[in-house]
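Please think about what follows:
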Amino acid sequence: MIPEIHIEDYNYALEDSRIAKYPLPERDSSKLLHYKDGKVHEYVFRELPSLLPAGSMMVFNDTKVVPARLHFKRDTGAHIEIFCLEPVEPAEYATAFAASAQTTWTCVVGNAKKWKDDVLSLYNPQDDPEISALNLKAMPAGRDGRTGKVTFTWDGGIPFSRVLEICGTIPIPPYLNRESESIDIERYQTLYAKWRGSVAAPTAGLHFTQRVLEEIRDKGISEENVCLHVGAGTFLPVKGSLVSEHPMHREPFLVKKALLEKLRDCEEGVTAVGTTSVRTLESLYYAGVSIIEKGEPEDVGQWVPYTREYAYTTREALDAIVKYLEKTGKDELSLGTRIIIVPGFKFRIVKRMVTNFHQPESTLILLVSAFVKGDWRTIYDYALSHGFRFLSYGDSSLLERAE
C-alpha cells in the first residue's frame, strides 16, 4: 500500500545564511554529526574512520559530474540554456561521450518557449577561438513536458565528452544562487569520481580526502563502488501536498557481480556514502525479486517496495542477480531505478549512511526519516542549533539505522 505522506510534515526553517555557498578550504574539516540510538554527538569529518566498525564495508558512488550545462543563442538574441540529462542516441553513456560528430540527449531546456525549430549556435561572447572552431549546434528532436530531445553536432572530430569540457559549465545546485566558478570544477567532484554521467554530485562524498580513505583502509574496512548517475530530478521539489503524487525520475545504475557476492556475505553491514548509494543498494533487492519471479531484471519502480509484502530474504534476492549474471555471461548489473524511500520503507542492506543536510520538504528528508524511524527532527534541530552548514557544500552526518 502506497503510504499517505504529507510533505509539509517534513518542513523546517532553513535560512539562506545557513546554506554553504562555497566549500571549506579542506574537504575533511567539515563538522560531522553522529546519530546512534536516538543520541547525537559531534565530531570533525576526519574522525569518521574511528566511528566505523573494523571489518565492515563502505560503498561509494563513483559517478562523475559532467559540465552538462550549455548556453546557446538564437538569431533573435534570445538565450536558451540546455541541460544534458541522459543520452538517447547512442543510448549508452560511454558511447555517447565518445561520439565524434553528433549525439542526441534528453535535456532540460531553459527558456524553451522562445525556441521554435531553428538551429542554435553556442553562445560565445568572448569569441574563444577553440569554441568557435567546434561550431557546436543544437537542434530540437522532440518535446516531452519539461524535457526534450536535442541533437548536437560539432566539427573537429573530438569526442562529445571533450566538447562538454570546452563548452559546458558545472551544473551546481540552483539553491547556491550563483554562477559556476573555477573552484567548482575541482570541489564539486569527489576524489574518487570515475564514470561520467551525473548532473549533480553525490555530495556526501565531497568530504573524503586521501587521509580519511587511508585510515578507512587501515581499519580493514573494504571500499566498494556502485555507480548511479544523478539526474536533475534530485533538485526538483515535491510540489503537491501528497508525496504519492510526486514523480521520481529514472536514474541508471551499475553494480559489479563481485560486489553483489560480497554483499551476500557481509556480516558487519554496509555503510553507504550518500543517498544515491543507499538508493542503488536498496534497489538491488527488488531487481533480484524481478529475476526470481520473471526471469529478468526490471527497472525498479517508484512504489514497488510498498505494494505488497516480500517473503524473499536479501540473500535470495542478491543470489538471484549473481546467478542471472553468470547465466548471461555478464560481470555487472546495469539497470535503472525510480525508487523513493519514505517512512515505512524496509531497509535490507544499508546499516549506516554518510549524508549531508538536505532541503526542507525534499525526498531526501523523507529518506533520512525512514532511516531513523521518524527521528529526523532530533538530527536537524541539533544541526540548526549548533552551527552546522547545510546542503551540497555543507557539513556531514553519520547516521546509524534505527532497528
